[in-house]
Design goal:
Blueprint: E1 2-6, E2 16-19, E3 29-39, H1 41-47, E4 61-62, E5 67-74, E6 86-89, E7 102-106, E8 110-112, H2 119-123, H3 126-139, E9 147-150, H4 156-167, E10 171-176, H5 181-186, E11 191-194, H6 200-203, E12 207-212, H7 216-222, E13 226-234, H8 241-247, H9 251-270, E14 274-277, H10 284-295, E15 303-308, H11 312-320, E16 328-332
Parallel strand pairs: 9-10, 9-12, 10-11, 12-13, 13-14, 15-16
Antiparallel strand pairs: 1-2, 1-4, 3-5, 3-7, 3-16, 5-6, 6-8
Helix pairs in contact: 3-4, 8-9
């Protein structure tokens, strides 16, 4: 089958079209003919080898972390799906590879595609929507009346997180560039900080939750806008000991991860707030809950541009160069 893969880490030009064997289908797997997959910054970081220590993939590796498509085969123990079902999914971190014609995914990681969406729209959602859900619902447990700050409100995660936080009843602030302010307001943000003109850390105060998608200086400043007891959840900051335990890392890796985040955690503790690193995980039940919100009109995907499958490498470059105006870039196979 046709795929886009990497044969070595750290080479942007190393992403190439290639042929791969048909995926084996386990007893609990569904075989999906992929209609569309979206591009995420995670794909670029995997390509560059940023996660070699914690995600020891075997090369060559087919890239791609989320999909929408049609079930074309099921394992002997599959009970939730049948051939012909339209589905969407984020495969488990150990079974990525959605820049391909077909993929086998465990049934627990798959959900019925939102009925109101096209395949391209549905493919834009799994990774970013699960990230938003696991940050705001599962970890922060956002409640009505709380104040939530979403960084990069026009980005892939940001566009969904703004809508989800608003659905949860929060007062939502977001950062965005001048050109994207109206879009983010249209998604439901109560306040949009134009980061080109204002420093959010001098404008905001007393927030319960910050979802950080940028890391670095933005993460450090985010600690300052929290109320005592508040939390920063970051998908771009240094990994913390809780993530190391969740990953099942060995003692050396646990120590290294703890050291990476020690400075941030100490700064947070001095302010009476907490820092938490999030590495999103696959979850079909959460995708089902998100599909209900989509079909009820509570959340809508934001698709910036759609590329044909043969231009997957160009789609990766498009995202890497920051050319997307808002939301996600998608590649379509069908």
């Amino acid at each position: 089958m046709k795929t886009f893969m990497i044969e070595r880490y750290g080479d942007p030009a190393g992403v190439r079209a290639g042929e791969a064997a048909e995926p084996p289908v386990g007893a609990d797997d569904v075989l999906v003919r992929i209609h569309a997959a979206s591009v995420n910054p995670l794909d670029l970081r995997i390509r560059d080898g940023d996660f070699k220590a914690i995600l020891p993939y075997r090369l060559p590796l087919v890239l791609g972390n989320d999909l929408a498509g049609v079930v074309v085969g099921v394992g002997a123990s599959v009970t939730r799906f049948a051939v012909g079902d339209e589905v969407y999914a984020r495969p488990d971190k150990d079974r990525i590879g959605t820049f391909a014609e077909r993929i086998a995914v465990h049934q627990d990681d798959v959900a019925a595609k939102p009925a109101t969406l096209t395949m391209a729209e549905a493919a834009s959602l799994p990774l970013v929507a699960l990230t938003a859900w696991q940050a705001l619902v599962e970890r922060a447990r956002v409640r009505p009346g709380q104040k939530v700050l979403i960084h990069a409100g026009a980005g892939g995660v940001g566009t969904i997180a703004v809508q989800l936080a608003k659905h949860l009843g929060a007062y939502v602030a977001a950062t965005a560039s001048t050109a994207k302010t109206d879009l983010v307001k249209g998604l439901g943000a109560d306040l949009v900080i134009d980061y080109k003109r204002q420093d959010f850390a001098t404008v905001l105060d007393g927030y319960d939750v910050v979802l950080d998608t940028l890391g670095g200086e933005t993460l450090e400043k985010s600690l300052r806008v929290l109320r005592p007891g508040g939390t920063v959840i970051s998908v771009a900051g240094p990994p913390d000991p809780a993530f190391a335990r969740e990953l099942g890392a060995n003692a050396v890796l646990r120590l290294a991860m703890s050291a990476l985040s020690l400075r941030t955690r100490r700064r947070a503790a001095r302010r009476g707030v907490t820092y938490s690193f999030l590495f999103m995980k696959a979850d079909g039940d959460q995708l089902r809950a998100l599909a209900r919100l989509v079909d009820a009109g509570r959340i809508r995907p934001v698709v910036d541009r759609v590329f044909p499958f043969e231009e997957t490498r160009e789609a990766l470059e498009y995202v890497e160069q920051g050319r997307a105006k808002a939301g996600k870039a998608v590649v379509t196979m069908v």
